[in-house]
Structures are given as C-alpha cells and as structure tokens.
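User: I'm preparing a small set of examples for a lab meeting where we compare how different chains pack in three dimensions. I only have the primary sequence for this one, and I'd like the structure in token form so I can line it up with the others. Please keep the answer compact; I'll paste it straight into my notes.
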Amino acid sequence: MTARDEVVEAFREHVRALIEGDTATLESTLDDGFTLTHMSGYRQPKQEWLDQMRAGQFDYHGFEEKSVDVEVAGDTAHLVARTVADATVYGTHAPWHLQLAFDFARVDGEWIALRAVGTSW
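Assistant: Understood. Below is the structure token output for the 121-residue chain.
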C-alpha cells in the first residue's frame, strides 16, 4: 500500500468511527493537540468535540464521499475530501455538503490526524 493509500484509509477509518460513534477509535487516531475547525469558524479542541459527540450533540449517520485528494511529503500529508454528510448537529438533521481538509503525520508507522478544517462546498 502506498503512503497515499494509507492516508486515505486513515481518513476512511475516521469516517467509520464518526458514523459508529466510536469515540475510543477517534481518541487513539487523533493527535492530543488535534483541533476541528467547524464551518462556523470555531476551532474546537479534540476533547471538547469528543465530549460533545458522547453527549449526542454531533451524531453522524452517514457520509457520501465525492472526492479525495492527497498530497504526501515524507511523514506528513494533507488530505482534502468533499463529502455529503448525513448528520445531526446541535439538533439539526441535514445533509451537509462538507469539505474536510486534514493534516496528518506518520507516528510510529500510523497516520495520525493533527487537525481538520470543515467548510461547505
């Protein structure tokens, strides 16, 4: 498997964990300093986001992947995915046209997400 394939698989594992509400997997595959910047511009720390997922404020029902682009440079990678996310966010259920930009680093042979920025498309 190429580094690009590994990064895409790390992203897809992230999406599976979101759909399954598997915050334990997210905990282990996100860097301790991970932040998620929402469409609103709010930059949310990892633990706050995971706590809100556990409380049901972010409920991901499915993702339709439209495109994935990856650039790998050594042990770092940048991935941009366009998706349609079926999610309930703070009580609002909708299909969200969500572009996710992730920065990854390879740590001990695994691709760990450092940060993600979500925007609409």
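A couple of notes for your slides: The helical segments are 3-20, 23-29, 46-54. The mean pLDDT is 97.

User: Perfect, thanks.
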